[in-house]
Amino acid sequence: MDLASCRFIVQHRDILFTWPPGVGKSNLAQAIGYQAVRMGYKVLYRSIFDAVAEMAQAEALKESHRLLKKYLTSDLLIIDDMGLKKLPAGAGEYLFEIIMRRYELRSTIMTSNRPLEDWGKLIWDVPTATAILDSFLSRAEVIQSYRLKDRACKTEERNGKTN
Questions:
Q1: Could you give the number of structural domains in the chain?
Q2: Which of 20, 60, 63, 144 has its CA 20 to 30 A from that of 1?
């Protein structure tokens, strides 16, 4: 419920939802984005694949500045599906620029179904992935699935284990 208050946007904090596919990361991120719009915030939602493709196309057309402005001026940027599959070469540079230029100025929500240590492989560039994560995580709250925690507790209860 705290995220629905959108207080994290005012505080320029970031959020990372990280858990396996099919548990509701995208739905939760979209619901928070919808609530932010209802509260008057400017929100931009993109899958990581669309963001990278848009940036590559804008760069080829020499329109990077115009597109980057759209990514940098939204109060909340939601980047969905990090880790679904490997990204094209150079994707890390685009993501790095977006994250670095939003750092401490605007809020970003990212969703990922892969462990953070895999991000270097996903963007084909371990140093860039490290730089992205260093900046992003310095002001981010990492949230793991409550559904998975509930499932684990129920499984332990059925197996006779208690906390």
A1: 1
A2: 20
163 in a structural domain: no
Length of the chain: 163
- How far from chain centre, in Å, is Cα 86? 16
CATH number of the domain bearing residue 122: 3.40.50.300
Whether the CA torsion 7, 116, 132, 71 is positive or negative: it is negative
Among 80-84, 106-110, 133-137, top mean pLDDT goes to 106-110
> Rounded CA gap, 139 and 45, in Å?
20
Residue 102 falls inside a structural domain: yes
What is the enclosing helix (H) or strand (E) of 13?
Answer: none
Residues 48-89 have pLDDT tens digits of 899 989 988 988 888 888 889 999 999 999 999 887 777 877
Q: Per the domain annotation, does 18 fall within a domain?
A: yes
**Domain with 144 in it:** 3-158
State how far the Cα of 13 lies from the Cα of 44, in Å rounded to an integer: 16
Distance set, CA 92 to CA 48, 56, 97, 119, 120 (Å): 10, 11, 9, 9, 9
